[in-house]
Amino acid sequence: xxxxxxxxxxxxxxxxxxxxxxxxxxxxxxxxxxxxxxxxxxxxxxxxxxxxxxxxxxxxxxxxxxxxxxxxxxxxxxxxxxxxxxxxxxxxxxxxxxxxxxxxxxxxxxxxxxxxxxxxxxxxxxxxxxxxxxxxxxxxxxxxxxxxxxxxxxxxxxxxxxxxxxxxxxxxxxxxxxxxxxxxxxxxxxxxxxxxxxxxxxxxxxxxxxxxxxxxxxxxxxxxxxxxxxxxxxxxxxxxxxxxxxxxxxxxxxxxxxxxxxxxxxxxxxxxxxxxxxxxxxxxxxxxxxxxxxxxxxxxxxxxxxxxxxxxxxxxxxxxxxxxxxxxxxxxxxxxxxxxxxxxxxxxxxxxxxxxxxxxxxxxxxxxxxxxxxxxxxxxxxxxxxxxxxxxxxxxxxxxxxxxxxxxxxxxxxxxxxxxxxxxxxxxxxxxxxxxxxxxxxxxxxxxxxxxxxxxxxxxxxxxxxxxxxxxxxxxxxxxxxxxxxx
Length: 487
Known about the structure:
Layout: H1 9-25, H2 29-45, H3 49-67, H4 77-104, H5 116-130, H6 141-158, H7 164-185, H8 197-216, H9 228-231, E1 243-248, E2 251-256, E3 261-265, E4 268-269, H10 279-291, H11 295-305, H12 310-318, E5 328-332, E6 348-353, H13 356-369, E7 374-377, E8 392-396, H14 405-415, E9 421-427, H15 429-436, E10 464-470, E11 476-482
Parallel strand pairs: 5-6, 5-8, 6-7, 8-9
Antiparallel strand pairs: 1-2, 2-3, 3-4, 9-11, 10-11
């Protein structure tokens, strides 16, 4: 029986209270000085470095012009350009610590990965002093603590630590409370124990040390040439020819006997063709490329605001699978790999998705969870695996809007071993109308040719134990069926 999902009023109140504090930060500067760095390090962490850097500059530069319009010089074009240049420079300098943190923290172990942001924020003052731009002595331990707190909250959030609420509440009481007290009372900041250029130069030195350490420790690299058993399960989605690994100019490629080439980028083999990104697949793949960095957090926040337990929600359908230690498990449309957390350790994980952005975030999640999985960029309607390759095959989310749902189901059955119980779960029409159509990108879901429905009619008749269940709230379905065992 699947786990029953129930709402918790306490969790819902806590989620709404925390969300309210962040909203308050946009209107109350003492609160924003505390919540702003948290949002900054979180946002940059969800994006590729270059894109995050440019977006953060836009978020800083444009509001500075809007709210500082009274300072805009009207004496001539030269003065106006100078004002714009200095405002842009200030925005760039403000964003640099977040970009530095984004680049370096991913290569540092454990809690040490929270240090690049505060070190860069303070070290920047040393560079400012060297360039004779402003007064660097304004930055000291108080700034270090605020930015370290922001990095710590995001680190705990990303690792789904139970201490996140406690640390966040403590920061609100100490940092936010003091900021509000100072704002309304006019009390001066306490004198820093160590201020000025000395503290900035110390932070700069440590930041440079961590940078060198991160560059010299890029982490382990997955090499496909050393995994013949895994490669033996692969085939060309187009011709069905077997594949082998070749190395050219230091890069690995999968090559078929007929000369087909499938590049391996960032340890992920790519089986995509231009035809795979046409129609509905192309339309929704573009959406996931945009929201891939936010996908986990938006889902997590949405579940929290409704008062549901995320773990209970995932186990409500993952508990239907029949997984034993040592099994080979495939998830099609794996997304960011969230379902992998709810599988027993000791299984061999594989995941395929159409979106490079989602797979990049899946890799990041696997590093946080200290898990390994073979990831593939490809179309679930043409799987690059030989017949009967996996003990467990399942799909959660995505099939509602495939080009060819029937073909995707047949492919899942083909690569599953005889006797395997397969699972397909996705949202119902009720959820699509209530959430997707009203959210960002809602125009993609409106004016559809037909409403969403569970694809029970697309399951081949020879399948056994076909069972459809609708979630308690009526917003998702769970379809299971068994591939017949060999007589």
